From TrEMBL:
Name of the gene: radA
Name assigned to this protein: DNA repair protein RadA
NCBIfam families with a match to the protein in the record: sms
Organism in which the protein naturally occurs: Candidatus Nanosyncoccus alces
Record remark: domains: The middle region has homology to RecA with ATPase motifs including the RadA KNRFG motif, while the C-terminus is homologous to Lon protease.
Keyword NADP: no
C-alpha cells in the first residue's frame, strides 16, 4: 500500500490530481480540499476483482412481496406533517430534514420523539449538543418517556453499529455534517465523509427495519449542503422553510418515495414549541387594513388553499435607477411583471422604487400570484384601493393576458369560506363567483379605483 493525495470538490465530488481554483465539473470556486487515499500496488484492478468476487442474486416473485405501505407507520402529533410524510414515518425509511440555522429543526424533532416514544423505543443521537443541552429542550417541550434515549457521537461507524442492533424503532441523527468514518482521513462535512456516513447509516436502517431521520445543514443560498447524491440515497427529503425570527414556517417534501410531494405542513413557534396552524388564511388576514397597495391573493401551498395579503409600496426614486425589493416573492419575477406593466398598461414605473411584501413570512412559488402582485403595484402607484369583497389570482403572460391557474375550485371555496363575494380570476374559470379578467390593462382600469 502507498499513500497519495488528491483534491476533491466539496460540491460535486469530482477529484483532481492537483489543486485548481475552479472545479471544471460544477464551476464552483475554491471548493477543492486535499484528501489522502491509499493505493494497492501490484494487484488486480477493482473491476477485475469485482468480476471474480460477484455472485448470483437471490430473487423472489414480485407477486409474493408485501408492499412497504402495509407496514405500520410511526405517527407524529402533527396531522399535516403525517400527511407530508405520506401517512407517518414508515419503518425502515430514511428521511433527510434540512433548514436554516435556528428555524426549529431540533425543536420539531424533539416533539416527534416525544410522541413516538409513548409507544416505541427512540434514540436521539447528537453530534452538536451534550446530554444536558438536549435535556433542557426535552423538558421545555414536555418530552418525558422512559423509551426516549440519548447518545452523543460523531462516529458514523458507531452510529451504524448501534442501529444494526435493532433495539430502536426510530433513530434521529443530528446532524450528518458532524459525522466521520474512521476509514476516511478527510474532515467531517466533506463530500466523502457525508456520502459514506450516509451510506453506512442507510444500510443499517434497511437491514434492521429502523426508521431514521437525518438532519442536514443548508448553504447560504438555502440549498441542502453536501453532495447531491445524499438526496438520491434517502427515501424522503423534507425542507423546513420560513423566517426564523417570526411568521409561519412550512415543512414540505421535495422528494417522497412513499407519498405525494404536494402536501405542506404550516407551523408557528410558541413557548411550548411548534404548533400546527389549522386556519392560516384567517390568521394571515386578522390584522389586515384595506389600504392602497393591499390585495388579497388566493394561493396554494401544496394541496392547501390559503388567502394571503400582498402589500406593495411605490415611492419616487431618488437615484438614477429605481430600486426593486421583494420579500416572499421572486425578485426576477417581479422585474418581469413590472416590465409587462410598463409595456402593456402604459403605467410609468421607471422612476418609482417598488417594494413588495408577502404578509406572514410566506414565500410564494405560485405563478397565479402574478395578477395580485400587478394589481398591488398599480394600486400603490395610483393611490387607490381594491374593494374588500374581492380576492385575486391568475398568471400574467408577457402579452399582458391573464392565464388560468391550477386548483381554481379550491381557491374559490377558501374565499367563500372567509366571506369574500367575488374573485378576480382568469376568464377560463366558469363559476358565478368569478369576475373574468381578460387582460391586465382592462382589469386595472376597471377594478383599481
Amino acid at each position: 500500500m502507498k499513500s497519495k493525495s488528491q483534491f476533491v470538490c466539496q460540491q460535486c465530488g469530482a477529484s483532481y490530481a492537483k489543486w485548481v481554483g475552479q472545479c471544471t465539473n460544477c464551476n464552483g470556486w475554491n471548493s477543492l480540499v486535499e484528501q489522502v487515499v491509499e493505493v494497492e500496488l501490484g494487484k488486480k484492478s477493482a473491476i477485475e476483482k469485482g468480476r471474480v468476487s460477484g455472485k448470483k442474486l437471490d430473487f423472489v416473485k414480485l407477486n409474493t412481496v408485501t408492499p412497504s405501505d402495509a407496514k405500520a407507520r410511526l405517527l407524529t402529533e402533527f396531522d399535516d406533517l403525517n400527511a407530508v410524510l405520506g401517512g407517518g414515518i414508515l419503518m425502515g425509511s430514511v428521511s433527510l430534514l434540512a433548514g436554516q440555522p435556528g428555524i426549529g429543526k431540533s425543536t420539531i424533532l424533539m416533539q416527534i420523539c416525544a410522541e413516538v416514544a409513548k409507544k416505541h423505543s427512540v434514540l436521539y443521537i447528537s453530534g452538536e449538543e451534550s446530554a444536558g443541552q438536549v435535556k433542557l429542550r426535552a423538558e421545555r417541550l414536555g418530552a418525558k418517556s422512559d423509551k426516549l434515549n440519548f447518545a452523543a457521537s460523531t462516529s458514523g461507524n458507531d452510529i451504524a453499529k448501534t442501529i444494526e442492533t435493532g433495539e430502536f424503532d426510530l433513530v434521529i441523527v443530528d446532524s450528518i455534517q458532524t459525522l466521520a468514518m474512521d476509514e476516511i482521513s478527510s474532515a467531517p462535512g466533506t463530500v466523502s465523509q457525508v456520502t459514506n456516513c450516509g451510506n453506512l447509516i442507510i444500510r443499517a436502517a434497511k437491514a434492521t427495519d429502523t426508521a431514521v431521520i437525518i438532519v442536514g445543514h443548508v448553504t447560504k443560498e438555502g440549498t441542502l449542503a453536501g453532495p447531491k447524491v445524499l438526496e438520491h440515497l434517502v427515501d424522503v427529503v423534507l425542507n423546513f422553510e420560513g423566517d426564523r425570527y417570526g411568521g409561519f414556517k412550512t415543512v414540505r417534501a421535495v422528494k417522497n418515495r412513499f407519498g405525494s410531494t404536494n402536501e405542506v405542513a404550516i407551523f408557528e413557534m410558541v413557548e411550548s414549541g411548534l404548533k400546527e396552524v389549522q386556519n392560516p388564511s384567517a390568521a394571515l388576514l386578522a390584522e389586515r387594513t384595506n389600504t392602497d397597495g393591499s390585495i388579497i391573493l388566493a394561493t396554494m401551498e401544496g394541496n392547501r388553499p390559503i388567502l394571503v395579503e400582498i402589500q406593495a409600496l411605490a415611492t419616487q426614486s431618488n437615484y438614477g435607477y429605481p430600486k426593486r425589493t421583494a420579500s416572499g416573492f421572486d425578485i426576477n419575477r417581479l422585474n418581469l411583471l413590472i416590465a409587462v406593466m410598463e409595456r402593456r398598461t402604459k403605467l410609468r414605473l421607471s422612476d418609482k422604487d417598488i417594494f413588495i411584501n408577502v404578509v406572514g413570512g410566506m414565500k410564494l412559488q405560485d405563478s397565479a400570484a402574478d395578477l395580485a402582485v400587478c394589481m398591488a403595484i398599480a394600486s400603490a402607484v395610483a393611490g387607490r384601493k381594491l374593494s374588500e369583497e374581492y380576492v385575486v389570482f391568475g398568471e400574467v403572460g408577457l402579452g399582458g393576458e391573464v392565464r388560468s391557474a391550477f386548483r381554481a375550485s379550491q381557491r374559490i371555496a377558501e374565499a367563500k369560506k372567509l366571506g369574500f363575494k367575488h374573485a378576480i380570476a382568469p376568464r377560463a374559470i366558469k363559476d358565478p363567483f368569478v369576475i373574468p379578467a381578460k387582460d391586465l390593462r382592462e382589469t386595472l382600469i376597471k377594478y383599481v379605483k
